Amino acid sequence: RYDEICDVDGSKLVTRNDDREDVIVERLAAYDAQTRPVADYYEHKGRLVSVNGDLPADEVTKQVFEVIENHRVAEARNPVSR
């Protein structure tokens, strides 16, 4: 293993400013402070739906559209006043 060299194909690795540890730590802290409370709120209300983002992009897209369609159909059957 060599620094700044890809272990797979030997090409030079490119490091972005966003790849620095301090930036990642800051982003995770921002997530905990800003995004997690919103997700927790909607999860508590039974309105949060998760999809597996580790799947290939086309499968994630398919799951997202299925969730939206299922929600649309459910809303049409039983409209909820807002």
Instruction: Characterize the overall form.
Output: elongated
Query: What is the count of structural domains?
Result: 2
Low-confidence stretches: none
Beta strand %: under 5%
Helix % is 40-55%
SSE layout and pairing:
Elements: H1 21-44, H2 57-77
Would you give an account of this structure?
- With 82 residues, the chain is mainly alpha-helical.
- The chain folds into two domains: 17-48, no CATH class; 49-82.
- 55% of the residues lie in helices and 0% in strands.
- The chain has two helices and no strands.
- The protein has helices at 21-44, 57-77.
- It starts with 20 loop residues before the first helix and ends in a 5-residue tail after the last helix.
How would you concisely characterize the structure shown here?
With 82 residues, the protein is mostly helical. Helices cover 55% and strands 0% of the residues. The radius of gyration is 20 Å and the shape is elongated.
Which key terms come to mind for this protein?
2 domains, mainly alpha, elongated, 0% strand, 82 residues, 55% helix, 2 helices
